[in-house]
Design brief:
Layout lengths: L1 E5 L6 H12 L2 E4 H11 L2 H12 L5 H13 L6 E4 L5 H9 L6 E8 L2 H9 L1 E4 L5 E3 L18 E2 L6 H24 L3 E5 L4 H12 L4
Parallel strand pairs: 1-3, 1-4, 2-3, 4-8
Antiparallel strand pairs: 5-6, 5-7
Helix pairs in contact: 1-8, 2-3, 6-7
The protein binds BIS(adenosine)-5'-pentaphosphate.
BIS(adenosine)-5'-pentaphosphate binds next to helix 1, helix 2, helix 3, strand 6 and helix 8.
Length: 213
């Protein structure tokens, strides 16, 4: 089965996904992480995606379809946590077309107000190797500039600069919010208040996931 985590940039999807993977043993598929890995590898996909990702715009659906198909098929027998896909209605329809093998059981929507999102994203830092998220104020790494988990460098993402943040928030409103309506109509969307402490957000998400496992 698939659980989808959806929410605006900075809502805490990556942070929550990390906790949920550890607790439930889900396979996490993050399309943002996958695209950044392609960019680092300078692959054909990475070269097509780089300028769009760095500008905060969506990468074309056909590229995302390739990524999602490969990752789903590689994890056929596992419970999957999807972070960052689907991001528009077309992608939601594509995922629906795969529902026999990969049924979406719940779509967990994290909502967070705009000023908090901007504060989180502008202060965010990530491990350039394993992508673990940090925050300069609320969650700094133990050793300044280096990841607690793998010891590699912690950096600021190109799309976390302020002008890019506003593009991403606009893209979310225009392209991703209709996905919520798509899943509401199927009775699959569960709203979570994401403005709380991470551990409280996790508890709220768990109360939903526990209904399906
Ligand atoms: P992606 O990597 O998916 O980025 P995003 O959706 O913009 O989400 P973020 O990773 O920025 O935020 P998050 O919600 O994971 O928050 P986090 O936990 O890190 O996508 C990047 C790009 O790839 C897209 O813009 C697009 O170009 C492309 N792309 C990806 N998928 C695509 C698709 N399907 N189609 C087309 N293009 C696609 O937390 C943020 C910060 O807040 C951290 O510092 C964290 O420590 C802190 N924090 C987290 N939770 C809390 C809390 N509860 N309280 C206080 N601080 C918190």
């Amino acid at each position: 089965m698939i659980i989808v985590l959806i929410g605006p940039p900075g809502a805490g999807k990556g942070t929550q996904a990390e906790t949920l993977v550890n607790k439930y043993g889900f396979v996490k598929i993050s399309t943002g992480d996958a695209l950044r890995a392609e960019i680092r590898a300078d692959s054909a996909i990475g070269r097509k995606a780089k300028s769009l990702v760095e500008a905060g715009k969506l990468v074309p659906d056909d590229i995302l379809f390739e990524i999602i198909k490969v990752n789903l098929e590689a994890n056929k027998d596992r419970d999957i946590l999807l972070d960052g896909y689907p991001r528009n209605v077309k992608q939601a329809q594509t995922l629906q077309s795969l529902s026999e093998a990969f049924p979406v059981k719940a779509v967990v929507h994290l909502s967070v107000n705009r000023s908090e999102l901007i504060a989180r994203l502008s202060g965010r830092r990530v491990c350039e190797n394993c992508q673990t998220p940090y925050h300069i104020l609320s969650k700094p790494p133990k050793v300044n500039g280096y990841c607690d988990k793998c010891g590699e460098k912690v950096i600021q993402r190109a799309d976390d600069q302020e002008d890019k943040i506003s593009v991403r928030l606009r893209v979310y409103e225009e392209e991703t919010m209709p996905v919520l309506q798509y899943y509401r109509e199927k009775g699959l969307c569960f709203d979570i208040e994401g403005n709380k402490e991470p551990t409280h957000v996790t508890q709220d998400i768990e109360s939903i996931i526990n209904k399906f496992i």
